Structures are given as C-alpha cells and as structure tokens.
Amino acid sequence: MTKKILFPFLFLFIIGVAGCSNAGTSGEIQSVGLLVPETINDGVWGTKGYKGLLSIQSNYDVDVYYKEGIHTKQAVEQAIKEYKENDVNLIFGHGSEYNEFFNNVASNYPKTHFVSFNGEATEKNTTSLKFAGYAMGFFGGMTAAHYSKSDKIGVIAAYEWQPEVQGFLEGAKFENKDIEVRLEYTHNWGDQKVALNLLDSMIENNVDVVYPAGDGYNVSVIEKIKEEGLYAIGYVSDQSDLGESTVLTSTVQHADKLYEIVARKFSNGELPSGNINFDFQDGAISMGKFSPDISKDFKKEMKKHIETYIETGKLPNGKKSGSGSPSS
C-alpha cells in the first residue's frame, strides 16, 4: 500500500504556553505518531488504534499523525524520521510486527518512546502492550460449546501463540466435555482466502460455531457464516452488528483504551520499558453483547463468572490465567 502523507489533525497556538522549549523532556507529550500495517478503516484493529490516537489528541491537546501501510524496515525508519521532524516523542506501532523494528532503532532516538503490541520490548525506551487473552478465549469457548447443536466447533486463528486459542479450547471443554474443537491457523493476520477455505472445510465437517481469531479476516468469515445460517464468536470488536442471531458474543480487546492508559503513564513519567499485560481487570478486555438467542440463564451465569474473574482472577474451572500488571 502506498504510504499516506503525514498530517496533523489539530493545530493549537496558545499564547503564553510553553512549546518546543521543553523538547525532549521526559514525561511530556509533545506530538504523537501512529503506524499501522494496513489501514485505519478496517472497522476492527486498525480503527481502534486510530480512535485511541484521536482520544490522546482530545485529552492532551497535541498534534497527532498517522501513516498506513507501514510494514517494512525501510518504511518504518522513514516514518520515524518524519515524525522526529514533527516533534513526535511518543510513537505507537499498531501491531506485533513493529517490535523488532522499534528495538533496532530505539537507541538512535533516545528522547522518543516506542510502543508496540504482543512482542518483546528490549530497549529502555520501548514498551510492548500485551492483551492477556486467555480468559476472554475461555469465556468465548464456553459460549460456543453451550450453543453448539452438533457438538463441533472451530477456531480459525492466525498463530499458535495466541493465548485466546488455548483459552477457547479449555473453556469449551469445561462447558461440554464431549465437545469437539477443530483448530486451524492461517499464519497471517489478514489472509482472507486461507481463512475462508478453512471455514469451508469446517462447514463440511458439521462445525456450527466458529471463532475467527484474526482481525484481518474475521469480518469476511462471519459474513460467510451468516450466509450459511451458522454461528460465530466475534473477535477484537463487539461484532454483534454483523448479525445478532449469528454472533453469539465477542471477545473484545479495547486497544483504544490502552492508548489512553499509555498516554497517561507517559505524561506522568510512569511508562515503564519492557512488557505490560492487560486483562478484564484493567477494562482493556471485555465480552461483547450476547445474542438474544442465548438463554437468560446462561447470560446470568456468564456475568457471574466474569465478575468473579475480575475480583479474584479465577476462572470457572478454578484456575488463574495470570492477568499481568494492572493499568492504574
């Protein structure tokens, strides 16, 4: 994808307020930049990053910039250089692909803090944000197993390391010990063709509830599931708007909220380097709206399970998933 030209969404000129004289001061947000590998208009992951950026703009009265289609070493390095010229000292790379890029260049920009997702931040001015996805997967798996009529459900995930995949499997088995869970992987966040082929295979094998755990293909998968009169568990966003009778519930990651948390920590001089985990307890993860086809008793049961998990960290099977560091 062709690179977008940087542009600020808001310019503020306030007489009497210090500007670039504090350039490089730790903890003060000057300007904020966002890099996304695909687009901010996907309605799922990229859109959430964009909303988080706009929230920072609104709360801190700073200029913000974004670039789309940034997924190569050369493109990342060029974007960072341009951001530096615009006094950006907080850069978000909206995906795991930015971890290695940021670790490699961070030492060249000691007054800039680099934030990415689901990786290993190794430099003192890099931070990786991680969603502790096991619990949301567990509750999604419980819902899928509860509703399945064929006792066959499926997961179309991007990668084996996704914690929500194991959570989904164990949650499904907890709800129904006889459930059959088929696990398939695209090895790419956005390969719709592969995901749809895997879905066709699942449908042929009588799978009736599918969890498309990849933000780049889950919308197209759910649309196909809807055409087939089957059921889905939404991913990343509350996807009930794709069909309340199709989407039983969703496992929601509030990436936009994490931007607010990071901005607050950075502005207070409290943003640590390394990896930070977020879960239900931080308000960074939640379950989406439940389908009206789900029984009231099950919804009530799930609400109680989630409240217990938030309070104690324990899942319905008595295990703790390890929610990681709190955000506040």
Describe the structure.
With 328 residues, the protein is of the alpha/beta class. It has two domains: 20-131 and 255-282, Rossmann fold (3-Layer(aba) Sandwich); 134-252 and 295-312, Rossmann fold (3-Layer(aba) Sandwich), CATH 3.40.50.2300. It is built from nine helices and twelve strands. It has helices spanning 45-60, 73-85, 98-105, 134-147, 163-175, 192-204, 218-227, 255-267, 296-312, and strands at residues 31-35, 63-67, 88-93, 113-117, 126-131, 152-157, 180-185, 209-213, 231-236, 247-253, 274-278, 285-287. Helix 1 (45-60) packs parallel to helix 8 (255-267) and helix 6 packs parallel to helix 7. The longest helix is centred in the last third of the chain and has 17 residues, at 296-312. Residues 1-26 and 323-328 have low confidence and may be disordered.
Protein topology:
Layout: E1 31-35, H1 45-60, E2 63-67, H2 73-85, E3 88-93, H3 98-105, E4 113-117, E5 126-131, H4 134-147, E6 152-157, H5 163-175, E7 180-185, H6 192-204, E8 209-213, H7 218-227, E9 231-236, E10 247-253, H8 255-267, E11 274-278, E12 285-287, H9 296-312
Parallel strand pairs: 1-2, 1-3, 3-4, 4-5, 5-11, 6-7, 6-8, 8-9, 9-10
Antiparallel strand pairs: 10-12
